[in-house]
Amino acid sequence: MRIDILTVFPDMLEGFFNCSMMARAQKAGLADIHLHDIRDYTTDKHHKTDDYPFGGCAGLVMKIEPIDRLITDLKSQREYDEVIYTSPDGEQFNQKAANSLSLLNNIIILCGHYKGIDYRIREHLITREISIGDYVLTGGELAAAVMTDSIVRLIPGVLSDEQSALSDCFQDNLLAPPVYTRPADYKGWKVPDVLLSGNQALIDDWEFQQSLERTKRLRPDLL
Ligand code: ADE
């Protein structure tokens, strides 16, 4: 899967995608993540990516030309399944959206900034607008990182069997059960006996009951 991220701050994301699972997924050829600096697509001598809004309200708006040039350039090279814009007023991102996006071949994620982007970009170039939560970030870069991380880890082969995404929180609308590792007794704080019993059917049942109980208590809205 190829993900092209369009940003005015590629440095913010460079380190993130060069570490850990994201780096491994790229090295293994399972994810192809490209960062594009919108500034490279400006034509004026000051490389301006933003301007004052018509109508006189406060703040700056991202300009249409460099973004259109960049998206047009990418689209001339391949077909894109979605052109996503990160915005606090978009649809709420969740595991279901991550699952469906992970099945696509090529997506573009445009990171918003300042007061937003010239609305014509949203009308003519964007196919989907996504928010990562009901709060306002200074820019869409963190949202792009959050989405890309949760999408890429779902691509078959990125996680090992033991880390399988199938046992994730939210995958079946249930929170994950508690997990423990050695030592089985630490300062008298004991791991539940059932997990040491070796009886897989009992363990599976205990984990399911724990998931159910935690979901009812912590996130009843998921049930
Ligand atoms: N840009 C600013 N805030 C955002 C949010 N909550 N989600 C996605 N993009 C954003």
Please give a structural write-up:
The protein is of the alpha/beta class. It folds into two domains: 151 residues, SPOUT methyltransferase, trefoil knot domain (Alpha/beta knot), CATH 3.40.1280.10; 51 residues, Trp Operon Repressor, Chain A (Orthogonal Bundle). The protein contains seven helices and nine strands. The strands form three sheets. It has a five-stranded parallel sheet, with helices on both faces. The protein has a two-stranded antiparallel ribbon with strand order 3-4. The mean pLDDT is 95. The structure holds adenine. The site of adenine has 12 residues, from strand 5.
How is the topology of this model organized?
Blueprint: E1 2-7, H1 10-17, H2 20-27, E2 32-37, E3 50-51, E4 61-62, H3 64-75, E5 82-92, H4 95-101, E6 106-111, H5 119-124, E7 128-131, H6 141-152, E8 185-186, E9 189-190, H7 200-218
Parallel strand pairs: 1-2, 1-6, 5-6, 5-7
Antiparallel strand pairs: 3-4, 8-9
The structure holds adenine.
Oligomer: single chain
Strand content: 15-25%
Main sheet summary: 5 strands, parallel
Overall morphology: elongated
Q: Please state the structural category.
A: alpha/beta
Number of domains: 2
* Overall strand count: 9
Strand order of the largest sheet: 2-1-6-5-7
CATH fourth-tier homologous superfamily of the largest domain:
SPOUT methyltransferase, trefoil knot domain
